[in-house]
Design brief:
The structure holds two protein chains of two kinds. By secondary structure, chain A is mainly β. Chain A has a single domain, classed as Sandwich (Immunoglobulin-like), CATH 2.60.40.10. Helix content of chain A is about 0%, strand content about 50%. In chain A, the strands form two sheets. Chain A has a five-stranded mixed beta sheet, with no helix packed on it. In chain A, a hairpin with a 5-residue loop joins strand 6 and strand 7. The radius of gyration of chain A is 13 Å and the shape is globular. Chain A starts with 8 loop residues before the first strand and ends with a strand. In chain B, strand 7 and strand 8 form a beta hairpin. In chain B, the strands form two sheets. In chain B, strands 2, 4, 5, 6, 9, 10 and 11 form a seven-stranded mixed beta sheet that branches. Chain B has a four-stranded antiparallel beta sheet with strand order 1-3-8-7, with no helix packed on it. At the A-B interface, strand 3, strand 4 and strand 8 of A face strand 5, strand 9 and strand 10 of B.
């Protein structure tokens, strides 16, 4: 399973766009990139998943460069309720699932 | 449709006891994964079951075990409890392999070992 590296924490302000980058230098050909969000005392919640280029859904965008050695989760116009821990996962169906420590995002008013 | 349910939600045990936690996945989901979450170690993978077979296992001692039934419901068991087993235990279900499919998490069982 490809190891991932994310910033431990980030601060931003309401209304801003937030970009969280995850490095995964050893990503394998069959690996997908998945992001989860977790609020305190709750289980993680799926945000977005991608394999290459760009994926967009109603809550976020995921940008993946051609070499796939990193990925960037983009949250448009964040609000206080986006304060959470964000996890980047990389792997495929045969892998153990490693969440890591995630990125603690703190949105300020 | 109903989400993932876990029972009990809270549990207090003493060292040396054993505990069984239950997870009911979303209807139609065949994969169930279990995680342990603590402030110090974060969210750690315990094991994944698919169609009653353990597909993957994390780095936990043999005191941690699990099983999955034909209706996809799963249980995990921790024997000879230690203080360090105090944690939030989360269960997640997905249609197939958990890494390539969206996982849906339950509310968790908070276990306290005294």
């Amino acid at each position: 399973l490809a190891k991932t590296t994310q910033p431990i924490s980030m601060d931003s302000y309401e209304g801003q766009e937030v970009n969280i980058t995850c490095s995964h230098n050893n990503i394998a050909t069959n690996d997908y990139i998945t992001w989860y969000q977790q609020f305190p005392s709750q289980g993680p919640r799926f945000i977005i998943q991608g394999y290459k280029t760009k994926v967009t859904n109603e809550v976020a965008s995921l940008f993946i460069p051609a070499d796939r050695k990193s990925s960037t989760l983009s949250l448009p116009r964040v609000s206080l309720s986006d304060t959470a821990v964000y996890y980047c996962l990389v792997g495929n169906r045969d892998d153990k699932i490693i969440f890591g420590k995630g990125t603690r995002l703190h949105i300020l008013p | 449709k109903a989400g993932v349910t876990q029972t009990p939600r809270y549990l207090i045990k003493t060292r040396g006891q054993q505990v069984t936690l239950s997870c009911s996945p979303i209807s139609g989901h065949r994969s169930v994964s279990w995680y342990q979450q603590t402030p110090g170690q974060g969210l750690q993978f315990l094991f994944e079951y698919f169609s009653e077979t353990q597909r993957n296992k994390g780095n936990f001692p043999g005191r941690f075990s699990g099983r999955q039934f034909s209706n996809s419901r799963s249980e995990m068991n921790v024997s000879t409890l230690e203080l360090g087993d105090s944690a939030l235990y989360l269960c997640a279900s997905s249609r197939a392999s958990s890494l390539n499919n969206e996982q849906f998490f339950g509310p968790g069982t908070r276990l306290t070992v005294l």
